[in-house]
């Protein structure tokens, strides 16, 4: 159930002590709901927060019937209290949600996008790797690196030089006929669409150095809200061109991913 305000002592507000999910709704029904629930529960377990009940989570989208696309954001915090970083003796986790209308950018599906490499490097922390916790300061700082509308996203590497993700999307590449995505056991967010594509055995986790991204055969960004964006141009953090890719006649990633989301494949 949506809460109109957050108390000053809420630990999610004070410390980022919580998790969140951003869920695509189509005609009032959640897309990839099971994957979102599993990731939220995994995040709660890692942070040792008592998770919401299945009924409470389902109530966030089981409202009056709607038509079209929406985005539902769910936030779970540990609740209020505690002394400093110490958690309260008895925590009362707080569940909040909001749903808003949404229109996907179909031009990005067909025309592709231009992206840049970010100078910020992600810190490794295996205990937080994969989950969608509320502390996203690295992503916020990375997104401040550009204001020009020429770039739709920025690519992030970790402090070992391995590519991890974009600021708000997962990364995929094709090399020698194989589609791969970064291994996210040290940092980064394991997206729900990414999980579904791995389960479908279309995508394999692998490692790729940030310096090698320009050499791949194809590059994509994707998440469970925006769908799959082919990358048509890659730029350095200083604004120098690195690589351009032509539009493919057939997009194997969109062909599998978009039906999972209810979106059309564009080629």
UniProtKB/TrEMBL annotation:
EC number, UniProt record: 4.1.3.38
User: InterPro entries under this entry?
Assistant: Aminodeoxychorismate_lyase_IV, Aminotrans_IV, Aminotransferase-like, BCAT-like_C, BCAT-like_N, Class-IV_PLP-Dep_Aminotrnsfr
Assigned keywords, A-Z = Folate biosynthesis, Lyase, Pyridoxal phosphate
| Recorded catalytic activity of this chain's protein | 4-amino-4-deoxychorismate = 4-aminobenzoate + pyruvate + H(+)
The annotated subunit structure for this chain is:
Homodimer.
Which PANTHER family does the entry mention? AMINO-ACID AMINOTRANSFERASE (PTHR42743), AMINODEOXYCHORISMATE LYASE (PTHR42743:SF2)
Regarding protein family, the annotation reads: Belongs to the class-IV pyridoxal-phosphate-dependent aminotransferase family.
Record's protein name: Aminodeoxychorismate lyase
Q: Which organism is it from?
A: Vreelandella janggokensis
The gene from which this protein is expressed is pabC
């Amino acid at each position: 159930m949506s809460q109109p305000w957050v108390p000053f002592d809420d630990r999610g507000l004070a410390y980022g002590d919580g998790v969140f999910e951003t869920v695509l709704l189509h005609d009032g029904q959640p897309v990839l709901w099971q994957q979102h629930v599993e990731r939220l529960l995994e995040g709660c377990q890692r942070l040792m927060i008592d998770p919401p009940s299945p009924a409470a989570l389902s109530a966030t989208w089981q409202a009056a019937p709607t038509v079209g696309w929406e985005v539902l954001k769910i936030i779970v915090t540990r609740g209020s209290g505690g002394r400093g970083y110490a958690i309260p003796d008895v925590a009362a986790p707080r569940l909040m949600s909001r749903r808003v209308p949404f229109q996907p950018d179909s031009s990005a599906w067909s025309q592709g996008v231009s992206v840049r490499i970010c100078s910020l490097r992600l810190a490794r922390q295996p205990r937080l790797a994969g989950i969608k916790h509320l502390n996203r300061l690295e992503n916020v700082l990375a997104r401040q690196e550009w204001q020009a509308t020429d770039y739709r996203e920025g690519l992030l590497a970790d402090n070992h030089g391995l590519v991890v993700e974009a600021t708000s999307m997962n990364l995929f590449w094709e090399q020698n006929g194989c589609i791969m995505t970064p291994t996210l056991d040290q940092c980064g967010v394991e997206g729900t669409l990414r999980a579904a594509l791995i389960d479908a055995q279309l995508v394999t986790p692998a490692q790729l150095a940030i310096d090698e991204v320009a050499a791949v055969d194809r590059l994509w960004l994707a998440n469970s809200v925006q769908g799959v964006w082919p990358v048509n141009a890659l730029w350095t953090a200083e604004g120098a061109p690195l690589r351009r890719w032509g539009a493919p006649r057939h997009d194997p990633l969109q062909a599998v991913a978009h039906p999972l989301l209810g979106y059309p494949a564009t080629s």
